[in-house]
């Protein structure tokens, strides 16, 4: 058995792996194989029948991937993890594995653009409806639950407005109605927030982001109760087949070892940058859970260890000024991911949430002058210097000299 500790930092390095079972290799081996050899025909029969543990085929289970799944289950406080080829593969597998035609999903007011697209596809083609509501209080949630509501799906913080949802409150309401709660925990990682410990049922991640941390993996993961995750494994994961490869699992295991250290730096840098952005005369407002003026500041302190590394900001002007500002950046990269060592910026209305109809985007608070900043691991002074010079460049051109 691998070592388990009461400390997250230790578990991020050790859980799920016992080197003595792998020839003493300090780093988990990459089992780069599609299939596994049975010692005899009877063993193959027993494994296919589910009467004997063991490996059969890497779409079903792979040793490197299993280590990643077990580590994620421990870090999220769940019983079983399932790894997928992407964050959207994880989201779609969970939704398709738990829902049927005629069901209804109650969603937080904002969701990632591709999640929105998936929800719309499910409504148009599978007759699985959905509603997006603010989820600001118990009464509003109870009023929005329909007789056929079979699942509640939440992002917190919501991408890209950073709005938070009180996870314990939603879980209380859902438990009374026997409705499972799924939380996209990508923006926080399990280091900052553990929704399962707040009563939620399944956590999903785009592992591409903070879990990887280096911008070189596409992956997803879901964690929850053993029986529920096994149901998803034997249906949506096995038969649709959006599984994670062994190499991606190995890279994620390597990334997770440094997750606590990286997240501390992301958070510390974001706190400094948020203060400076808020004071800047060319910024209308910022959306950051660590800002004392943030609408859900107290909720963030209750359910998040730290405020995270993501900041959204409204720049003075519109799309033109937003794009000019991004184009003037030198250190900060224009890219639509997050959680990487590099600081990244993107324009949600024309990038990550372009698929969302304009009217829906407006309801979500995604305006043309909204930018989303993923604060990286560079020296915060260099990040700020680049943001400041870019803002200066744009507003000098418009004869609005920033002093």
Write the layout of secondary structure elements.
Elements: H1 8-14, H2 41-49, H3 63-76, E1 80-84, H4 87-98, E2 104-108, H5 113-126, E3 129-133, H6 138-144, E4 149-155, H7 167-177, E5 181-184, H8 189-192, E6 202-206, E7 220-224, H9 226-240, H10 246-257, H11 259-279, E8 283-287, H12 297-303, E9 310-315, H13 319-327, E10 333-334, E11 344-346, H14 358-364, E12 370-374, H15 380-397
Parallel strand pairs: 2-3, 2-4, 4-5, 5-6, 10-11
Antiparallel strand pairs: 1-7, 6-7, 8-9, 9-12, 11-12
Helix pairs in contact: 1-3, 1-10, 3-10, 4-9, 13-15
**Radius of gyration from the alpha-carbon trace, in angstroms:** 22 Å
Q: What is the first-to-last residue Cα distance? A: 61 Å
Tell me the domain tally.
2
Could you please say which CATH topology of the largest domain applies here? Aspartate Aminotransferase, domain 2
**Uncertain stretches:** none
How would you describe this structure to a colleague?
The modification N6-(pyridoxal phosphate)lysine is found at residue 209. Belongs to the trans-sulfuration enzymes family. L-methionine gamma-lyase subfamily. It catalyses: L-methionine + H2O = methanethiol + 2-oxobutanoate + NH4(+); L-homocysteine + H2O = 2-oxobutanoate + hydrogen sulfide + NH4(+) + H(+). The protein is of the alpha/beta class. It folds into 2 domains: 8-30 and 62-257, Aspartate Aminotransferase, domain 2; 259-397, Aspartate Aminotransferase, domain 1 (Alpha-Beta Complex). The protein contains 15 helices and 12 strands. The chain has helices at 8-14, 41-49, 63-76, 87-98, 113-126, 138-144, 167-177, 189-192, 226-240, 246-257, 259-279, 297-303, 319-327, 358-364, 380-397, and strands at residues 80-84, 104-108, 129-133, 149-155, 181-184, 202-206, 220-224, 283-287, 310-315, 333-334, 344-346, 370-374. Strands 1-7-6-5-4-2-3 form a 7-stranded mixed sheet, sandwiched between helices. The chain has a 5-stranded mixed sheet with strand order 8-9-12-11-10, with helices on one face. Helix 7 (167-177) links the parallel strand 4 (149-155) and strand 5. Helix 3 (63-76) runs parallel beside helix 10, helix 4 packs across helix 9 and helix 13 (319-327) packs across helix 15 (380-397). The longest helix has 21 residues, at 259-279. The model has no long low-confidence stretch (mean pLDDT 96).
